[in-house]
Amino acid sequence: MSKESSTLAAAAQSGFSNASSYDQNRPSYPPEAVDKLLTHLYLNDMPEAQIVDLAAGTGKFTELLANRKEGYEIIAIEPHEAMRRELEKKELKGVVVKDGYAAHIPLEDQSVDAVIASQPINKRWVSMLTGVGVRFANDEALKEIHRIIRQAGVFGMIWNVEDYNQPEAWNATTDWEAKVKAITWSFDDGTPRFRHEKWRDVFDAQLRSTPVTAPFADPLFTLPIGEESVPFAISMSKEKVWERYSTLSQIANLKGEKEENVKRKVLKAIEDSNEKNEKGEVIMHGCTFFAWTTRI
Fold first, then answer.
1. Does 224 sit behind a cis peptide bond, omega within 30 degrees of 0 on the bond before it?
2. Rounded CA gap, 145 and 139, in Å?
3. DSSP letter at 221?
4. How far apart are CA 150 and CA 95, in angstroms?
5. CA quadruple 234, 12, 53, 37: dihedral, nearest 10
6. Are 255 and 17 contacting, i.e. CB atoms less than 8 angstroms apart?
7. What is the pTM of this model?
8. Would you call 195 exposed, middle or buried from its count of C-beta atoms within 10 A (0-12, 13-18, 19+)?
9. 78-119 pLDDT, tens per residue?
């Protein structure tokens, strides 16, 4: 195992050890959301743009980039060995897979047009930042991302956010999703994720200053960050909901009776729902949220 992979936090290694299951049960991204993000990043119709897919995982977002007409040159960075192997198996056109993490990207200065991070702010991503389990809002990582992007290049982020894994202030669409959301929050382990809404902090911190330091403020990326979202709704059996839910890192790390107890609670919430279709399926709601900014 490489130096980068060996520094990945143990909880992240175990939580995502079943890379094949993760790849099968985690969703892709809606074409509408991907098109909108690439348009905001000025990458739509930009042939052979050089793009880093940071925290590429098993390649859910990488595949979408590789299959586009622009013929992007893609460098997929992923520290988790099992996930990286799963991605390499796909042999995607125009994609080079590399071991690395957000605070140590194995590329030259100003060598790419864009960096895109899909599903940042989870246990695996947090571990990518410096190789230890620190928070996402990390100056070292932002400086490293800035280093490899060319002048006036772009940085984008995209998340699939299910109602059961959304910020506390957001309203779940159905009662069963609200119940499962409460379960999710009950297993909060202190690791910042999208639902904690801390990801903006590192960008906002660029302009925080005192009267003494204000003249020396030197932001790396433009503010305010652009933000948009596209809603989704998917019909799923209770078993499929559980398979998807169990890929969340804090749930994937549960074993034995603890895992079974959570599974019972999730399935009961679905079974008690009055909002099933004729097949007994429920509608799982959420949104694909994306953000973008430009390198200064």
1. yes
2. 10
3. B
4. 19
5. 40
6. no
7. 0.87
8. buried
9. 998 999 999 999 999 999 999 998 889 999 999 999 999 998
